[in-house]
Amino acid sequence: MVWIKEVEALTEAAANALLKTLEEPPVNCYFLLNCQQPEILLATLRSRCFYYHLAPPEMNYAIHWLQQQLPNMAYADGVTALNLSQGAPVLALSLLKQEWQEREAFCQALYVSLQQQNLYGLLAQFNQDNAERKIYWLLSLLLDALKRQTHAEVYCVNQDKQPLIMALSQLPSAMLLAVSESWKQCRHQLVTIPAINKELLLAEQLLDWEAQLVALGK
């Protein structure tokens, strides 16, 4: 049994190597490919797989289970953790136990940087081993800001970060959309290009966004 987590994160070379293995698999060997975005996989790779959709439990059941594991958990924290984990309770529990304080520090630093128009100051936050994770958190906040602009706060992912979402929602929609797209491309590059200069790429992203903020204030 071979389990590959986040198979969509494989480079093209790795995906092609996997494809060759799937074409002539070892005897009595099964491959489990975990994938959140099957549409971005190579078509030839998808054609050799069976699809099994694993639906998450309903929110109220998932929250109840999380409260049993963490009796002191705030309701908004539980909802947010589930939203950030695509509704998967075990992943949400892992987030709450292992990364929640780091996320809190990241969100606080982002809020301060926005107020000071010093987004480059976030480089130390981003330039870590889990940079892709930080970008995912940022993208969810940017999309929440767009939702707030359209009075759709009930659908916000980060229910525990309303002040930060409100601050981001003061930015023009066009800027939020452009910045979101830019960070998506940045994350894709970090995931798919092994030898990329991560610090330089992140610095460029932050300086570009900071320049847009400064220009907006003039």
From TrEMBL:
UniProt entry tagged with the keyword Nucleotidyltransferase: yes
Single GO BP term: DNA-templated DNA replication
Enzyme class: transferase
One Pfam short name: DNA_pol3_delta2
InterPro entries to which the protein is assigned, alphabetical: DNA_pol3_clamp-load_cplx_C (IPR008921), DNA_pol_III_delta_C (IPR015199), DNA_Rep/Repair_Clamp_Loader (IPR050238), P-loop_NTPase (IPR027417)
Boundaries of every DNA polymerase III delta subunit C-terminal domain copy: 98-210
EC number: 2.7.7.7
Coiled coil: none
GO cellular component: DNA polymerase III complex
UniProt-recorded Gene Ontology molecular function terms: DNA binding; DNA-directed DNA polymerase activity
Catalytic activity line of the entry: DNA(n) + a 2'-deoxyribonucleoside 5'-triphosphate = DNA(n+1) + diphosphate
Key word S-adenosyl-L-methionine present: no
Keyword entries, A-Z: DNA replication, DNA-directed DNA polymerase, Nucleotidyltransferase, Transferase
Protein name: DNA polymerase III subunit delta'
Gene: holB_1
